[in-house]
Amino acid sequence: MPSWPEIDYFHANAATARGRLAELEHVAQADWYDLYRHKHDGSLWRVDREDKYQGRFIVRVPSLSDWESFDSSPLEKQLLLSARGGESEDRCLIAGCSAKAIKASAFCLEHTYERGVRK
Ligand SMILES: [Zn+2]
């Protein structure tokens, strides 16, 4: 396994992304994703196709059979939380939600994510 995090943001023009792509071969394509295989260890990595409105991710997927349907949202939430530096001391603004807001957001992790925020 390459020593990459299980999920990361993917910025096509960044050196990190170019370096990773150089170690990968393209395997398949779907509406929203491209699938790559690591040239040396065979691990599978799914990359979001370009989208104007949302950040892109590169995420390790467990198998060829369900690479397209693999639910990466729990990993995306973890990444969002760590990108924000964790929770703040404030409560989420959504009525009835008692969770703490994440830093630089008025909402908790779930409600921030629900609004389409990924970073
Ligand atoms: Zn909330």
Question: Which runs of at least 5 residues are low in confidence (pLDDT < 50)?
Answer: none
- Tally of extended strands? 7
- What's the structural domain tally? 2
Mean pLDDT rating: 94
If you compute it from the alpha carbons, what radius of gyration comes out, rounded to the nearest whole angstrom?
A: 16 Å
Structural class: alpha+beta
Secondary structure tally, helices? 3
- Bound molecule kinds, no repeats: zinc ion
Strand order of the largest sheet: 1-5-4-3-2
The secondary-structure element order is: EHEEEEHEEH
Overall spatial form: elongated
Q: How helical, in percent, are the residues?
A: 10-25%
Distance between the termini: 26 Å
For the biggest sheet, the summary is: 5 strands, antiparallel
Strand percentage, roughly?
25-35%
Topology:
Layout lengths: L6 E3 L5 H8 L1 E6 L3 E6 L5 E5 L8 E5 L11 H11 L3 E5 L8 E3 L6 H6 L5
Antiparallel strand pairs: 1-5, 2-3, 3-4, 4-5, 6-7
Bound molecules: zinc ion.
